[in-house]
Design brief:
It contains 5 helices and no strands. It has one domain. With 138 residues, the protein is mainly alpha-helical.
Length: 138
């Protein structure tokens, strides 16, 4: 039972906490970063009229979840797939708009990915520490 606990349950709990932190706190972090971007009233109004309200927050959760999964399975290079997919999808919509939309999009994407990478590094480090502690204890 002790080996089962150390090898399966504890990593499962640690990874689950990482995913929850990424999903919940990541949204707050991205919203904070986007709130720091200075726009004129006209630019902010134009941004509010673009897209579906709340879609960015909804997209951000699976985006960070996917990035974390890539980190957890040892493939951080695959995070580039997320950037590429988002760039392809957004390319047409950013072509016709002004620079503020592109900057807003970049700030949101980079903040989201940076937060996911941070959580992934902390989670992996916590798991290593716990694994050593449990190995020492048992």
């Amino acid at each position: 039972m002790n080996a089962f606990l150390a090898e399966l349950v504890i990593p499962l709990v640690v990874y689950t906490v990482g995913y929850i932190v990424s999903a919940v706190a990541g949204s707050v972090f991205v919203e904070f970063c986007l709130g720091r971007v200075k726009f004129t009233k006209e630019q902010r109004d134009a941004l509010k009229n673009e897209g579906v309200e709340g879609a960015g927050k909804i997209i951000g959760v699976p985006e960070r979840t996917l990035a974390l999964t890539f980190l957890f399975v040892g493939r951080p290079d695959a995070i580039a797939i997320i950037f590429a997919a988002k760039s392809i999808i957004r390319f047409e919509s950013t072509k016709d708009r002004q620079r503020p939309f592109a900057e807003y999009y970049l700030v949101g994407t980079l903040a989201s990915m940076a937060f996911a990478v941070f959580v992934g590094i902390v989670t992996n480090h916590a798991l290593e520490i716990l694994a050593k502690s449990i190995a020492w204890f048992w």
